[in-house]
Amino acid sequence: MIPTYEYDIHLPARRDPGKAYPTIFTLHGKGSNERNMQGLVAPLSGEFIIVNIRGDLLLGTGYQYYELRGLGNPIRESFDRAVRQLEAFIQYATEKYPIDANKRYLLGFSQGAILSMTLALTMGEQLKGIVALNGYVPDFVKAEYPLQSVDKVSVFISHGEFDSVFPVQIGKDNAEYFNKLTPRFAFKIYPSDHGVTVDNQRDFIAWLLQDAQLPTNKE
Prior knowledge:
Residues 63-197 form the Phospholipase/carboxylesterase/thioesterase domain. By secondary structure, the protein is α/β, with parallel strands linked by helices. The chain has a single domain (7-211), classed as Rossmann fold (3-Layer(aba) Sandwich). Helices cover 33% and strands 26% of the residues.
């Protein structure tokens, strides 16, 4: 299979031959690229395989995974295509690299968070968990997609209190929605705009290590 997406992959430097590793697939925001996500997850690169996925659609000097009619209004055909392609890419990477299929995580910001939450709902227990930073779940996903159980999927959602792109109420709505679907749930609000604070990064790193049952960094 030829992968749909360009990506960069970071394997643990001291990996053991024959061992499968927990893996984080990152999804960037609209107009960004895969390199901008590596800094968020770099502290985990000793324990996890990191796969940073670049959107396949050009947008200015960056990329996106799907097109929009307007803010918060994805073009349905483009969005559906992205979901299908990302599901296939995750399977491709799992077959190609020493990825533990029982410990696959998605971590996304903005458009990447939207897709991470959507993929949790479409892939269900094929994922161990997701980290969704400042996003939302499209109404058509909730109403029309064939949704899988996320009862055993771990979900960390965060949102900026002063988010000028997606108001904080959207984050609270995400929390209310997922809190009813899985007991493995965390939600936090940070005093920020549409971005990721140092505290936000520290918290999701600790959460991922704990959820994957890995030792906490001593640094």
